[in-house]
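User: Structure please.
Assistant: Input sequence and predicted structure:
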Amino acid sequence: MKLRFKYSLLVTLAACLSLLGACGKKENKVNSSTVGIGISGNNPLFSGAAGQTIAAQYNSIRSSVACLPGRTRLANDVSFYVTGSFSGTKILGNWTPGFMTSGTVSAMYVGVGAYRDLMFLTKVTNGSQVVGYNVTLSYCDVANQYPNYPAVVSNERALVNFQTIEGRDNWGNLTVPNGIVINTATSCGYGLIASAATLIISQRNSNPLSSTDFPVYTSFTKPTCNN
C-alpha cells in the first residue's frame, strides 16, 4: 500500500536555548522502550491475527516513509502508554514511558508530522473493554542551528517526557485541542490520527559539552493513502 503524506500545519519548534557542542564517544541511547518490546510480532500483545497485521503495517510504513530531504529517521522509536477507561475518539492522560504489558492490541491509528515524523497509536483491549493506548513515535533528526555543531535531536539523545498539549496560532487561538483525536475510518487499512499537538524533550546526554535539554513540539495529522 503506497502512502502519500501531507505536511501538518505545525512544524517542530524550539525554545531559545544556549546551544553548546558535543564531543566524545557516541552513546546510542535514544528511543528505546523501557517497558515491553514495542510494536513487534514477538510482543504478546500482538499475538492475535489483528495484532500480527498491525505489526506488519507498522514495519511497512516506518520503512517506506522517508524524512524530508536533509533529515534522517532515528534508528529506534520511543513508546509511552496511558491506561484507564476510554470511550469516544479523544485520548487524554498522563503518558508513562514504555509499553503496556497486558491486554490485546486490536487497532492502530497513524499520524504524520511536517518533517515526516510518525505517530503510531495502538488500542489495547481486554475483551470488549478498552484498557489503554500505546503511542509509538518515530522521529526525524533535527540539526543544530549552528553549523558544524551536533544535532539537537539525534540517536545520541534520549527522548523523554512525552505529553499532548493545546496547539495555538500566533494570535492565541486554539487550533488543536489537548489530547490525541482519532478517526476510526479504515480506508487506509488502519485508523488515522485526526489531530495531536505534542511535546517531547530531547534530553541532554552525559557528555558535559552536549547542548541543553531541547523541547520538540510536533503536530501530527492524518496521512493519505492509495488503495
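The helical segments are 49-64.
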